[in-house]
Every structure is written in C-alpha cells, then in structure tokens.
C-alpha cells in the first residue's frame, strides 16, 4: 500500500457530461501528478500540481483541469466527456521532482 | 519517435529462469529511471529506480542503466509465477516534472 487514495473506484458517465476525480496524497508528499491509462497502453501524463499550482502539463486539451488543495489532495475535472476518455485515471504523489512517484489504486472511468 | 519504447511482448520464461526486460528512451536530459510492475486491473507498483550508469541490485531484481546508449533494463532472477505482470519503464522529462512511460512488456512465468 502506498498511502495514496483515490475516489471513486469506478464511474460510468455519458458523452458530454462532466466528472470529478479525487486523490489524497501520501503523508509527506507535496506533489500530485495525474495520468490517463487507456487499455493496453502505458500511463500518459496529464498534469502535475505542486503547492496548489500547476507544474507541468502533458498533451491534453483544456477540458482536462485540476486543483490542488492546501492539504495537497487533488482533483481532476474533465468536461464534455468523450468516448475516448474511457480509461484508468491514476494519481501519483511524490515530493517535488526528481523523485519517485507512488500511485494510487486508480479510478476506472467508462464513458457511454 | 516515442519518448520511451519497450517490447510489448509477451515474454514467457519458465519458473526459476532469468527474465530480461528492455527499454530505450529518447530524451538525453533524463536523469531518473524507474521500473513499475502492473498486475491486470491494478495500478503500477514501484519495483526499482536507478539514477547512475551501471547496475543496481535489489533482491531478485537488477536494474541496468547505460545513458550513452539511452538504454535501461530490468533483470528478474529466479522468476516466479507471481512475477507474471506487465512491466512499465518510466523516465523523467528533462524538466523533471513528469514521467514518460513505455507501453509495458507483458511477462508470463510458466510454472
């Protein structure tokens, strides 16, 4: 167990809806990174938050947005859901890079 | 060109054998290299990290790094059926604020 928690575990939405995923980081970690993992692929970096500010972003459209709170927990918001957004969403916590990232159990999102 | 490339496999080895997993990366500025194991339906679990050229051993696992060749490998000695999983290679970006992952190599250890 890494101490990183995510909620919910599973989620089913329809196209066009909005979704919020949550992550609590491991004690002592101030950095949260979000990844999208499609079936059969490696995780793809969405963005990273450090001390409540975005600290890097991957190649994802603006409808993917995030927040980090003073306790270092984080949210990932996705607007206008598309079928291709169906994936496992992973949150990883760490101290500021370069450092090992520890993953939470993930949220499986299905968009119908 | 992808930032991190791995053979997708599947790789099958008999129980007790050595499994060798390979990874190449494109960003010469990368400084940190990681191997994660992912069981089906689960999240990635850290196995090892390596920062310096050469070998790093941890129990049955040995990571090898060659920055000149931009190559990272993972050796699993005395492979066990419980080692059957997908192994993900991850490399940090030259800015250090994100990891690039390969697509993973599927390993099956046959009893």
Name some characteristics of this structure.
heterodimer, A: 112 residues, mainly beta, 0% helix, globular, B: 111 residues, 11 strands, 54% strand
Could you explain the architecture of this structure?
- The complex is a heterodimer of chains A (112) and B (111).
- Chain A is mainly β and 112 residues long.
- Chain A is built from no helices and eleven strands.
- In chain A, strands 2, 4, 5, 6, 9, 10 and 11 form a seven-stranded mixed sheet that branches. Chain A has a four-stranded antiparallel sheet with strand order 1-3-8-7, with no helix packed on it.
- The N and C termini of chain A lie far apart (32 Å).
- By secondary structure, chain B is mainly beta.
- In chain B, the strands form two sheets. In chain B, strands 2, 4, 5, 9, 10 and 11 form a six-stranded mixed sheet that branches. In chain B, strands 1-3-8-7-6 form a five-stranded antiparallel sheet, with no helix packed on it.
- Classes of the chains: A mainly beta (112), B mainly beta (111).
- Chain A binds chain B through residues 33, 35, 40-45, 48, 50, 55-56, 58, 88, 90, 92, 97-106, and chain B through 4, 31-32, 34, 36, 42-46, 49, 88, 90, 92-93, 95-104.
Topology summary:
The complex is a heterodimer of chains A (112) and B (111).
Chain A: E1 5-7, E2 10-13, E3 19-24, E4 31-37, E5 44-50, E6 53-57, E7 64-68, E8 74-78, E9 87-94, E10 102-103, E11 107-111
Parallel strand pairs in A: 2-11
Antiparallel strand pairs in A: 1-3, 3-8, 4-5, 4-9, 5-6, 7-8, 9-10, 9-11
Chain B: E1 4-6, E2 11-14, E3 19-25, E4 33-38, E5 45-50, E6 54-58, E7 61-66, E8 71-76, E9 85-92, E10 99-101, E11 105-110
Parallel strand pairs in B: 2-11
Antiparallel strand pairs in B: 1-3, 3-8, 4-5, 4-9, 6-7, 7-8, 9-10, 9-11
> Any idea what the radius of gyration of chain A is?
13 Å
Work out the radius of gyration of chain B: 13 Å
The coarse silhouette of chain A is globular
**Count of discrete alpha- or pi-helical segments spanning 4 or more residues of chain A:** 0
| Percentage of residues in DSSP E strands of chain B | over 45%
Helices of chain B, by number, come to: 0
């Amino acid at each position: 167990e890494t101490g990183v928690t995510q909620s919910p575990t599973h989620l089913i939405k329809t196209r066009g809806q909005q979704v919020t995923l949550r992550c609590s980081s491991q004690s002592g970690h101030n950095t949260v990174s979000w990844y999208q993992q499609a079936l059969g692929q490696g995780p793809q970096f969405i963005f990273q938050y450090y001390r409540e500010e975005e600290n890097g972003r991957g190649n994802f459209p603006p409808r993917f947005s995030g927040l980090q709170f003073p306790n270092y927990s984080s949210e990932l918001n996705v607007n206008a859901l598309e079928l291709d957004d169906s994936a496992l969403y992973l949150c990883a916590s760490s101290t500021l890079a370069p450092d090992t990232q520890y993953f939470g159990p993930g949220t499986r999102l299905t968009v119908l | 060109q992808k930032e991190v490339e791995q053979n997708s496999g599947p790789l099958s080895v008999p129980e007790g054998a050595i499994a060798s997993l390979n990874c190449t990366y494109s960003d010469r500025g990368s400084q940190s290299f990681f191997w994660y194991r992912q069981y089906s339906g689960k999240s990635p679990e850290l196995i090892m990290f390596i920062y310096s050229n050469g070998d790093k051993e941890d129990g049955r696992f040995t990571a090898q790094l060659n920055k000149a060749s931009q190559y990272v490998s993972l050796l699993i000695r005395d492979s066990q059926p419980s080692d059957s999983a997908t192994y993900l290679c991850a490399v940090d970006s030259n800015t250090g604020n994100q990891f690039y992952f390969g697509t993973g190599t599927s390993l099956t250890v046959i009893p």
